[in-house]
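Protocol step 4 of 6: structure prediction from sequence.
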Amino acid sequence: MSINSALWAGASGLLANSSALAAISDNIANVNTVGYKRASTSFSPLFESRNESSRYAAGGVASNNQLEISRGGLLTPGSSATDLAISGDGFFVVRGTSTTSSPTDPVFFTRSGRFQSDANGFLRNDAGLFLYGWPVQADGSVTSNPSDLNALEAINLSSIGGAAEATSNVSINANLQASQTVSAAEGTYAAGVSGTNMASGTVTPDFQRSIQIYDSQGGVRTMTLSLLKSSTANQWHAELHATPASDVTTGAGLVDGQVATGVIAFDVNGDIDLTNTTLSTTLNFLSSNNAAALGANQVQWASATGIGAQSVTLNIGSATQPGGMTQYDSPSALISTQVDGAVFGDFSGVEIDGDGNVFAKLSNGIVRQIYRVPVATFVNPNGLAAESGGSYSVTPDSGTFTLNGPGEGASGSIASATLENSNVDLATEFTSLITTQRAYSASSKIITTADEMLDEAIRMKR
């Protein structure tokens, strides 16, 4: 009977609009939820197959709810360096645990990027899910694979210990006065003899400055550069020696803590002349536990220091580049020195760049890359299944994931100290709320009207 079908149509309208109201309610409730994706409701008629001569029977309506996962929300500034958002397509890879015992352990994908360090140092979002990334190897490389989840590990900041960094480069910017009078001691000067060199203090240098470098344990070691004007035009005798001399042990040719000796030469324009400069610009320090006999001009850290080997490059300039050492007729002066390396420093913070590189910042100024955050993309992100905490899981409709570095392929870039807002528009939701309410009321009228018509049909027998 058509009236009965009308009753069922009205009931289906109530059910469909109830489902739409539930979706709208979730949207409004989560308008401030980070990374939330709006639920939309679509309606489809439930027609029955019929021909033109048959009596019409109402089929009713069915509702279908779907999350608008592929539509991004507005990116806004966050309050922490670990607040992350993806600008473009893709998802963060998260898991419910910090360790995985097998490849079948559940993995989820999310846009909810408000990550904070927990009591154990792991980065977790508001839902308690652990952020996973590629660890950086000791040589600085990252082993990545587009489909291998086993290459990922939970990002942990508490495992980052302090570190020191040995000096490997020293740059000197200085001027030596061209009109400097040649000292009387220059006539008997001999670098390898204690009684006639500058390192021992017997000969007073025309110019002397100390430079501090860092050893393998972050200790500060002082190297002194002593210079004596030569009787040969445009040349200066140079000695680089440790202060105190007991910091080093030297082979034949070096005395009084000397690390390197030679001549620094300049051309007629006052620029450095590297061709005629004999002072070594590569300083090799053997480890303090070196047991082999030292060869000529070899240098070893004294056994009492207990430090490792290191090589230091001394940059004194080039005629084709500004800076370095010069010889102009103005007072000798050390303009500046640049020394890399650092004393021991503790972990002080974290930075994440647009390429997903996670850097640990140490209190001594050292910055080290420790992880790289991948971005997972899908052929059909709207086909993902919604899970708790604003996360999603793979389904046949979504297709398999692809892991890439941020900005690579179809992956969006990562914005640090940024959060993705909900993609809900309140004006749209309130409009939908009104139309849904009206549609629900109208469906209820169908039921009351059909009920009255049935009542009329029943009374016909009376």
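Step 5 (inspection) to follow. Helices lie at 2-29, 426-459.
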